Amino acid sequence: MSGPPRKPTSQxxxxxxxxxxxRKHEPILALHIPDPPPELSEAARGQWARLIDVLQPMRIVSxxxxxxxxxxxxxxxxxxxxxxxxxxxxxxxxxxxxxxTVVSMKRSPWVAMQIEYGLMIxxxxxEFGMTPAAxxxxxxxRGEAQDFTxxxxxxxx
Length: 157
What we know:
Blueprint: H1 9-15, H2 19-22, H3 42-55, H4 66-89, E1 92-96, E2 102-107, H5 109-127, H6 132-136, H7 152-155
Antiparallel strand pairs: 1-2
Helix pairs in contact: 3-4, 4-5
């Protein structure tokens, strides 16, 4: 499949798009906040709760989103761990020779992990309408502004 991913019909409806009316055979799912799956790590359970806090007012989550939400939460937890390790150990680590003398410096493996997890987080955030570009395409029929903030302070606890 070429081009950008297909936008969910629920987001098209919120944006007032005529394309939503053209999708007549798409299943209509009940909005429901799923429970976290039991295999989630403890750190990911905390991220799950934060994601639900942000996604619930957006009214786009259903039980079928459980796996995607679980993966999103795990990536957030892993990104947080990598960030903590970089803060604690630094972005570079010394390379020592056999006698223990520092001969050079190399990038910490935590940096590569942080970058990889960050890219996955962006993908999941876009899927759930949590990026500026995704939000710019959604209109709310509510009269008051909604705060869907997912700040770093909330993300890292």
